[in-house]
Amino acid sequence: MADYENFETTFEDGVLRAEMHSTSKMNGFNAVMGDELLDIAIRLHEEPVRCFVLTGSDGVFSAGGDVGEFLTGSSPSAFRRGASILHDAMVQFHQAAVPIVTGVNGLAVGAGFSLAIFGDYVLVSEDAYFEFGYPNLGASSDGGSTFYLPRLVGLREAKRIALLNERIDPEEAVDIGLASEAVPAGEFDDRLTEVAQKVAEGPTLALGRTQRLLTESTTSTIEQQLARETETFARTARSEDFAEGVTAFVERREPEFEGR
């Protein structure tokens, strides 16, 4: 396993789990963390990952960018580099045919907000909360939040969240579509493991590609979306899991997918 300064990773039964242990306070997102997140994202393309899980540690998901770094010599070019590396990581995650689960175990603000909401399945602890956060620093957003947020909650609601910058509790997050499920803090770890294992047992390519189709659908015409569906279905039909799924259906048994 790779050795990171800001993440602890495990890879077991097809589940690659990355737990943020930032060297910055409150799991703040620092420059090294961006490089490490990009490395983790690339692993989804190179290793037999069947589900990726991103979560925080010690009751904190991420409080966003490390403001201390902003005050100690950061320049416009440094900000551009940092955002570019983070965004390269987000593109790699988006392009990987791997389902992504984010486990929001505590506050998710700023860049932490962006990282929290990009999962295909977002599990949130009842002790956690979301906050757009960027207006607190007089900053515009990064990390893909302006891509994912209107797709999740609608344009009008996305603008309300960004303008008012209010805390969003777990129940509201589920109600508006920001999160998939909220659970008591004492049940969070078990439920996160359960969701990840269930996803990892499925047909990885089909699930990952379907999530990407759904995400991209909001900016597609019907013709474009159907063309993408045709191409994706044809590629996925060449997978070993498709053959297994069809065979198992005919034989009236549960399929045993391998993620290939």
UniProtKB/TrEMBL annotation:
Q: Which organism is it from?
A: Salinirubellus salinus
Indicate what this protein is called per its UniProt record.
Answer: Enoyl-CoA hydratase-related protein
